Structure prediction request, 367 residues.
Amino acid sequence: AALPFGGERRGGKKRRNMDRRGAQARFKKAQKLMRKGDTRDLSADQQREIVQNLTYAVENGHADACCYLGQLYDEGECGLDRDSAKAVELYDLGMKRGDECALGALAYMYEHGKGGLKKCVIEAFILYEKAALAGDGSAQNNLGRCYMEGLGCERDVKKAFEWYKKATYNTSSGMPQAKINLAGMYLSGQGVRRQLKKGKKLLRQVRDSKGASSAEAALRLAEVYMEEGGIKNFERARSNFEFAAKNGNAEGMCMYGDCLEKGVGGEANAEQAQIWYRKAADAGYNDAKDALTRLKEEKREREEARKPRKQLDIRDFFPPVRQTSKRKEEKRIEPKAKRAKTAIGERNTSVVQEYEGTQENPIVVQN
Prediction:
């Protein structure tokens, strides 16, 4: 009979046991390669080996391999084409084989409506809860987030705190993201009494682990120091912003640029500030784009201010008198002259007529 993921079942109990042992060995090899870092940084041969080992493990009944291979399909890593539907198929297979990690991954697909599944936060909450109760650290963190945001359930910050705490101290995983979330609860005083020392300690632990969440932890720690204020805290904040920036966090790049521009926690360096703003803008951070626009405008204004000013002249404050050409002036004056000449001519004519009239009918003066 064919297996759900394309393998063929071989006869005999002894043979099947050998296949399971082989599947476990191949899964361990894939795990070892994946622990070296980001799979995108591995060579093409190593990526191919990971896919081959996980595929063999899935086809021979390994439960945990389903979730690993599903994640590769979901992200389109190790040379695989992105295929969320295939990822859902693998998560479902892993869930049926009893893997709580696959259960939590399937819940995530329901939450975001991926892989052909209809978005349903209630179904996601139910699956997160099942996986969390089974001990999956990622699901415990996501269940805490559901309670914190009211996704598929009523908002309950106390339950959110409890699940973040369980995920943080989960011996099998010890979720770094859960530590950051728990630190946020301690720092804000939501669901628990406010404890700044505990919150900062958790953030330092995640930052010093230098994992995928270390940059975010450094950024949050820097924000705490900035809020506390003081010269020493500003220096610590700048150091943490720099750590976040150099580890690829776009917001950290922008904030580090802001420190360099304004001289917060150290000397100001406008040139370096612009470099970090540009890196953050290239990463899609809008505040950095606004900062670059502002710097460009300020530079233009400074250049305008440096230009020599024109000496003031009283004529600058009055509109210029309209000048007319001689030809136009003559044309304008000529009609007036004609009218005046005509008027004089008419008046002289009337005077002559009056005189002639007196000659024809002379007035007789009697003594």
Notes: The radius of gyration is 43 Å. The CA atoms of residues 5 and 138 lie 25 Å apart. The chain is about 70% helix and 0% strand. Residues 6-10, 363-367 have pLDDT under 50 and may be disordered.
